[in-house]
Amino acid sequence: MTTAPLPAAPWWRPHPGRTLAIRGGTPLVGTYPISGAKNAVLPLMVSALLTPHLVTLHNVPATLDVAVLASLLQGLGCEMNWSPTSAGLSLTISADKVRPRSVDPDLVTRMRASVLLLGALLARCGEARLPLPGGDAIGLRGIDFHIAGLRAMGATVDLEAGVIHATAPHGLRGAEILLPMPSVGATENLLLAAVLARGTTIIRNAALEPEIADLALCLTGMGARIGGIGSHILTIEGGLPLAGTIHAVLPDRIEFGTLACATAITDGELFLAHSRIDLLGAASASFAAAGVDLSEMDGGVMARRAKGSLNGIDVTTGPYPEFATDLQAPVMALLTRARGASAITETIFEHRFHHVGELRKMGANISVMGRTALVRGVDRLDGAAVTCTDIRAAAALVVAALGGTGKTTLDGLDHLDRGYDNMQEKLAACGANVVRSDTDR
Questions:
Q1: Conformational region of residue 243, where left means phi above 0, alpha means psi within -120 to 50, and beta covers everything else
Q2: In whole angstroms, what is the distance from residue 115 CA to residue 129 CA?
Q3: Could you give the strand order of the β-sheet that contains 176-178, starting from the edge strand earlier in sequence?
Q4: Which of 170, 190, 194, 220 could form a disulfide with 201 if both were Cys (CB 3.0 to 4.6 A apart)?
Q5: H-state helical runs in 1-116
Q6: Shared fold status for 19-35+251-437 and 38-248
Q7: Are 41 and 66 in contact (CB under 8 A)?
Q8: pLDDT tens track of the chain, all 441 residues?
Q9: What is the largest CA-CA distance in the chain?
Q10: Where along the chain do its domains lie?
Q11: How many CB atoms lie within 10 A of CB 194?
């Protein structure tokens, strides 16, 4: 994946350096601003395709994934207008001249969220053609649920030579759809399609993630009629043209959880500005059991280690409000320094333990059997040369390096850049010894 400047996001510049050097052992202290949610902003950006009117998003994180999607949308005919603010980037998208055949295959294969273009383009233009999406190599994450739902809404969908071609020349129609599992991506894709489909669409077994509710609230602000927001049954009365809207992206609960881990492992004290404990779901109880103290305050959450040592806990990932799979890796890094043993079971993705081998290089005691990792706490982690293999693995290695001894050098930083807004600068402002450079190991 290239980190070259992307013209649709002129604020994006590759961070200097291909390695990140972290010298651990310094408590994090101060204020760390939590950005808008990566997993929310991408479908919100795609929602602008549904209307010829202006859609403005506030609290947009300055990440590589946002820059890539902006370039994808620009290639489809959208105009992008960026404004820096004290609360993050603001983005206004104009999609009055959409060209559904102009999808850049190289950009699509960089990110999983590009599959959301399918439902939006079908609904707005009656046609979509795009390569199979890319993203992290953490599991199969098939798009069968997406395709089956769109077919139920009257679309013709063909898959040939790695390219999805979907058509609905007479428009989509409402349908009753039962998802075999509460897939976040499928729920979002079908929701985007349903708001312009004629008639009523009912999505049963819809995913409950806060990012889906954020998308639904943005769509209702555009004039969509959506019932059951925040529940497993979404009812969409479609067919009406949508207006523009102004919407603020909700805080990133995964960045929040990651920095809570970093605070606790360094025995620091951070005010995580703009964060909210309720967004963590079941993970908030797991943090408390592990010895991470989170206190809601005006404007954010204070994070610190509870009195005493960190404690081993058992964690099983699951759909929201269960423990988020995206928090599994940074929490594993935290638990490498906890007293006793922890069992972490991954139920969402079948290949999400790539970070285990890298943590072992630092002295972590982790064994894996199938989809369960057994973590036995150690007295110290030692600096090492490690490689980021996906977005959340990168975050886990940052957490471990901050809580370790000596120098840890990370490469594969595109993964970190994809999901975290200026993490190096934010950490440095809180006392971390973090340097990005081209220095060889």
A1: beta
A2: 10
A3: 176-178, 199-204, 233-238, 225-227
A4: 194
A5: 38-47, 64-75, 105-108
A6: yes
A7: yes
A8: 445 557 799 998 876 678 999 999 999 999 999 999 999 999 999 999 999 999 999 999 999 999 999 999 999 999 999 999 877 899 999 999 998 876 888 888 888 788 999 999 999 999 999 888 764 443 334 689 999 999 999 999 998 888 899 999 999 999 999 999 999 999 999 999 999 999 999 999 999 999 999 999 999 999 999 999 999 999 999 999 999 999 999 999 999 999 999 999 999 999 999 999 999 999 999 999 999 999 999 999 999 999 888 999 999 999 999 999 999 999 999 999 999 999 999 998 777 899 999 999 999 999 999 999 999 999 999 999 999 999 999 999 999 999 999 999 999 999 999 999 999 999 999 999 999 987 544
A9: 65
A10: 19-35+251-437, 38-248
A11: 32
H or E element, residue 397 = helix 391-402
Angstrom distance (rounded) from CA 91 to CA 42: 12
**Superfamily the domain 38-248 falls into:** Enolpyruvate transferase domain (3.65.10.10)
Query: What are 111's two structure tokens?
Result: 């990110």
Amino acid found at 229: I
d(C-alpha 152, C-alpha 174), whole Å: 8
CA distance 145 to 119: 12
DSSP string across 340-388: SEEEEE--S-TT--THHHHHHHTT-EEEEETTEEEEE--S--B--EEE-
> Do 341 and 377 form a contact (C-beta atoms < 8 A)?
yes
How far apart are the C-alpha atoms of 100 and 186, rounded to whole Å?
A: 20
CA distances from 45 to 32, 192, 414 (A): 25, 11, 21
* Token pair listed for 107: 């950009």
Report d(CA 355, CA 332) in Å as an integer: 9
Q: Distance between CA atoms of 244 and 353, rounded to whole angstroms?
A: 42
Name residue, tokens 């994934």.
Answer: 65
Show the CA angle centred on residue 434, arms to residues 430 and 439, nearest 5°.
165
Third-level CATH fold of 19-35+251-437: UDP-n-acetylglucosamine1-carboxyvinyl-transferase; Chain (3.65.10)
